Amino acid sequence: MVGLGFGCYVGFMILVVLIAPVYIIPIFNKVTRLDDPKVTQPILSLARANGIAAKDVYEIDASRQTTRMSANVSGFGSTMRITLNDNLLRRGSPEEIQAVMATKWATTSCIIFTRTLYFSAWSS
Predict the structure, then answer these.
(1) Cβ proximity of 82 and 71 under 8 Å
(2) Which pLDDT band, with edges at 50, 70 and 90, does 124 fall under?
(3) How confident is the model over 14-27, as pLDDT tens digits?
(4) CA distance 18 to 73
(5) CB of 57 within 8 A of CB of 39?
(6) pLDDT, tens digit, for every residue of 78-113?
(7) Could you tell me which of 115, 91, 94, 113 has the C-alpha nearest to residue 45?
């Protein structure tokens, strides 16, 4: 039997995952919708092929804090977002951007698979 504390933790985490991309992240960074089809169309096509239901690609102004090139997929359902940082967009070629996104999706898929196996075994 799972305790009340664990249930509260899971509920809180689900809430954070749903609201963070839309309400929390924009408090700390400027997030804008990316409108360049040369960048967005290949990424959204790759996302659909991998079962990621994001509708738009966003840019975040991470260069104020770091020189690292990065991207992520955050949210769940209607709040799911693909976000590329401005360093990646400024310094990366279209092929490099797609490679970074593919790496992020592969890592996320492995983590989800591992957690699913762990929780399935734990709850048995």
Answers:
(1) yes
(2) very low
(3) 777 778 888 888 88
(4) 12
(5) yes
(6) 778 899 999 999 999 988 998 888 887 776 655 555
(7) 94
Q: Are 112 and 73 in contact (CB under 8 A)?
A: no
- State pTM to two decimals: 0.74
Burial of 117 (0-12, 13-18, 19+ CB in 10 A): exposed
DSSP state, 57? E
More confident residue, 3 or 42: 42
Residues in the chain, how many?
Answer: 124
Tokens coding 86: 């401005």
Q: Is pLDDT larger for residue 76 or for residue 44?
A: 44
Rounded to 5°, angle at Cα 48 from 79 and 34:
60
| Tokens of residue 55, six digits | 């509708």
Question: Which H or E run includes 108?
Answer: helix 94-123
Q: Which domains does the chain have, with CATH numbers?
A: 30-123 (3.30.2010.10)
